[in-house]
User: Fold this.
Amino acid sequence: MKLISGLLALVMIPSVSFANDYLNEGLYVGNQNPFRGIFNIPRHRPNSELSAGAYRSSFQLEIHNSFTGVDVGNESIFIDGETYVGRLAVERGFSDGWRAGFELPIVSHQGGFLDSIIDDWHDAFSLDGFDRGDAPEDLLLYRYIDGESLDISVREKNTDIGDLVLTMGKRWENSGGSSLFRIEVKLPTGDAESLMGSGGVDVGVRVQTTRKISRRGTLYGGLGFAWLETGDVLAELRQNWAGTFTLGWSWQQWSRVALKVQ
Assistant:
């Protein structure tokens, strides 16, 4: 699968010190495959300080261009399209390091204006495009069939709300940095038939830490687990437990720019 992710984050920053802390946070990215992105496995979220009574809000736009096709026995999956996800997140701080908030995604399945750009990129560097150049541009087709009872198909372009995520966490200081424990609950507010949501409740936990290792260098990492309710999408095939691990390094050479490897 070829996956292109574009990220745009608009964050209300109350002070320069907060900007520096926030700049060295981990990247909030995940797999937005249309059959995977509808489930919530906790990602790396900011664990910089949020004082009691203070609010933090952000809006992030993700663009995911996907293409793959596999036939195994009587099973067949074909994914060709572009998914846009705009995430509005709001969080409030409480005493003793506690915080709570929500994230509301707006999901849009489209044909994809990036198709020709990606095809040209593959041609320019002689990369394997997995026959994506032979597929019509601006096509939207997300489909899974098993030759028997399952036939999930999304062909119509659509935009709607996704599944609402409620979050609660506690932050504490440690030697050279800070840590955050967080609980997330995803509610089935999105339409499962059009792959805006999973049709089920997901419950996840995550522990992450950020540590300053030099004047300009910051190391961060986290571990998360999630229980995924059976829901309405590929219920017979999925596992109900999933995990994620993040490890990254940030180098802040300039006051408003940081280079990251994650």
In short: The first strand starts at residue 4 and ends at 11. The first helix runs from residue 16 to 23. The mean pLDDT is 85.
